[in-house]
Each structure stands twice: as C-alpha cells, then as structure tokens.
Amino acid sequence: MSVPTTSAAQKSAVFDAAKVRADFPILQELVRGKPLVYLDSAASTQKPRQVIETIDRYYRAENANIHRGVYYLSELATSKYEAARETVRRFLNAASTKEIIFTSGTTDSINLVAHSFGRAFVNEGDEIIISAMEHHSNIVPWQMLAEDRGAKIKVIPMNDAGELQLDALEGLFSSRTRLVAIVSVSNSLGTVNPVEDIIEMAHSQQVPVLLDAAQAVAHAPLDVQALDCDFLAFSAHKIFGPTGVGVLYGKQELLEQIPPYKGGGDMIREVTFEKTTYSELPSRFEAGTPNIAGVIGLGAALDYVESIGREQISTYEADLLAYGEAKLAAIDGVRIIGTASQKAGAISFVLEDVHPHDVGTFLDRQGVAIRVGHHCTQPVMDRFNIPATSRASIALYNEKSDYDALVEGLDEIIKVFRG
Question: Minimal CA–CA distance to 44: which of 293, 399, 404, 395?
Fold first, then answer.
C-alpha cells in the first residue's frame, strides 16, 4: 500500500482519539447496561455524524433520481453523485473518473471482474492465481468462472505466521495465467500483504492484478497509480460509509475491453429490438438506479477520513494494534492466529478449551462486541487446523481502553471455564 503525498498541515496534525470518538454517536450507547466496546470494524465500521447527516439531508431535501431528470432536484442529486465519484478518484489517485465504477460492495465488484473480464479473456485451460488467505468473495467468483470456462485456479500458499510465500508464486505463473486476484489485508489474520511485489511479479509476466482492498482502505493510504494495480475493489461500509455501496477501480484501457456485467437502464446509449449500444465509461457498468444516497454518503465518509489524515490514522492504529497484541499475548491460554511482521486492523485468537462462540457470547454480556467464527475464510481456518477464531478488530475510533476491556472480559471467562 503506497503512501500519497500529504499536506504540511496533515503531517503536523496530532491524532485526537477523544475528538474522533465524539463524532460517532453509537459509541455513546450502552449495551446490556454497559458502555459499548466495539471491536468488530473488520466486519463493518461505525458511522460518524458527518456521514449520517449527509444521508439524512439527501432524503430530506435532495431526493431524486439521477442523470435523466431536467428539474432542480434531479440535477442536484446528479451533481452530488458525480462529485462523490470525483472524491473516490482523488482518494485512490485514479487517473480519471471513468475508472471509478459504483457497485453494491467489494463482493459485487469482484463478481463484475470475474464475469466481464472472464468473458473477454478467460478460456478453457487458462489459469487464475489467488492466495490461501482469500475471503470467500475472492474465491467463489473465480471458482464459478473456472467451472463455466474450463479454467483452473492456483493458490499461493502461506506459512505458519500467516504470510504468503512469495517464493512459491513465481512457479505458479505460466503462459495460461490470465489474472492474479489477491487480498491486500487479510480480514481474518490482519496480514498486510506485499502487494507491490506481487503486482511487479505479475506484470513481469504480463498478467493483470485485482486487489481486494476491503480491509486495507480504512487503515492506510491507497494510490492505484503508484501501486499500478489493474483493478481494485472496496466497500463503503468498511470505511465509515453506508452498507450496499462499493467501488471498483479499473484501468481505463482494461475496462474498455470488457463487456458490461449487467444490462438495463443508464448503461445504454440506444436500444432497439435488433441491437443495443452501450454508454461510455463508467455508466456502462452501472445498470439501473443506483444507491444514490449511499454513494453520496461514501463521498462524505472519504472526506471525513481525509480531514483527519490517512497517515495519522495509520500511525495511530499501528501503535494501538501493537498494544492489543501485547495484552492478548500475555494471557495464559491465548494463541494469536496470524503473527505476520506486517499487520493492520485485526487480531484473531483462540482461547484454550473455550469455543470462540462462548467467548463472543460472554464478552457481549460485558458490552464488548467482537466477531467469532471462520470470518468467511474457511480455507484459512483449515490451514491452521481450527474451526474458528475470536477476532478483535479496530478502527480510528478505538482506544487502548477497548483492549483493556477485552482483556478483563477474557480474564473473567478464564475464571468461569477453568474454575
């Protein structure tokens, strides 16, 4: 993940965790009579009032369909929708808004590439490379494509620390390799993958790369031109925006070579019963009425992150994560799953003799919200020979006291289960 240039004001800014927390109304709520400790941001982040108010204002005073209306409200909604596209372009440092496609989320974005890129470029005997730590959303679409086209999937292995074995990647390439689809940050392990190296290796073989940036987008700067990735996908709800909205970035020259994913309104230029001609980018891939309020809310979320400073967020979270790992590692019977040298956002662990579901249920009674299960990464669980983990994941609104509350809860669990 490359770091874009930041202003002098951003570089000199001091991260104010208390001020940030005050922006999130839900963090003032009580859960079962206790203050909410939210440690499930890898599943979905909470929303600041700036985003909530933006969406509320749209529905109260700006609601209309976009692009086709000639009246004031439609023009206003269209303007705000397209302004959000420019915000995303700037946030990712894409070359053009034509490279920014709005989808329903990371899963939809990956499926778009699997369907459209697959139709154009993947044939029988061709190969797609993924990794051993992928979310199901970056496995199943390629399996479906492989079954449909007679293609094959190859998998980059990982070591016991939860790091990809790049020395094995080079041997996976062949003349039939058509795409590498790789996660930037693992949702279940927190591993930050060396995507720059992976992209360089793939491009040396003339193979394009898709990055699943769902977990990366809220934790560190992303610069698609510096990375030189060919596709990149993320979801709004992973970066303080609403659910049901996502982004697919694609290089313009690639997007222009692949067919549309869905057919219908707004992606057409002209329709007859004999033939349909499609719109220019990005409309070609945005069939039907989109989640207008959600897209505008995403724009507000990215503006909010930029107002704090992505470098400041990354630095703050790195210190916070290190604190959490040290606290958890000191607990007798806790085994951290995923000990990569570079991590972000999440710590997964198992507690000896206690099922993760029991851990999560007990912590909930203390007001502590974590995620338990396989985290849509069942192959990862199989790799570590475990059925599930407990996962504590953070965002910019967390503090060390949240980890303290988690540890206190785990100490109580140990007392109960060990007598």
Answer: 395
Contact 233, 246 (CB under 8 A): yes
Same domain, residue pair 89 and 229: yes
**Predicted TM-score (pTM) above 0.85:** yes
Same domain, 61 and 29: no
CB-based contacts of 341: which residues, under 8 Å, 6+ apart? 161, 163
* Sheet (strand 246-250) strand order: 100-103, 246-250, 231-235, 209-212, 177-183, 127-131, 152-156
Q: How confident is the model at residue 388 (pLDDT cuts 50, 70, 90)?
A: very high
The number of distinct structural domains making up the chain is 2
Here the tokens at position 84 are 């959000």
Separation CA 323–CA 259 (nearest Å)? 48
Q: Are residues 276 and 342 in the same domain?
A: no
Residues 157, 75: one domain?
A: yes
36 shares its domain with 101: no
Is 376 annotated in the active site? yes
Claim to verify: residue 196 and residue 243 sit in the same structural domain: yes
Task: Note down the domain range covering 319.
Answer: 8-47+309-418
- Whole-angstrom Cα distance, residue 180 to residue 196? 13
The tokens for 339 are 């000990």
Domain assignment of residue 3, yes or no = no
**Pairing label, strands 389-393, 371-373:** antiparallel
Choose the catalytic residue: 262, 376, 387, 417. Answer: 376
Q: Do 298 and 383 share a structural domain?
A: no
Q: Are residues 356 and 247 in the same domain?
A: no
The two beta strands, 368-369 and 37-38, are parallel
Question: Which residue do the tokens 């099922």 mark?
Answer: 355
Q: Is the pLDDT of residue 143 over 70?
A: yes
Sheet holding 389-393, edge to edge: 334-337, 346-351, 389-393, 371-373
Torsion 303-304-307-312 (CA) sign: negative
Q: pLDDT tens, 22-47?
A: 999 999 999 999 999 999 999 999 99
CATH of residue 364's domain is 3.90.1150.10
Report yes or no on 2 lying in a domain. Answer: no
Place of tokens 């007990």: 362
Average pLDDT over residues 5-14: 46
Q: Which whole number is the average pLDDT over 326-341?
A: 97
The C-alpha torsion from 325 through 331 and 333 to 339, rounded to 10°, is 10
What pLDDT is attached to residue 8? 39
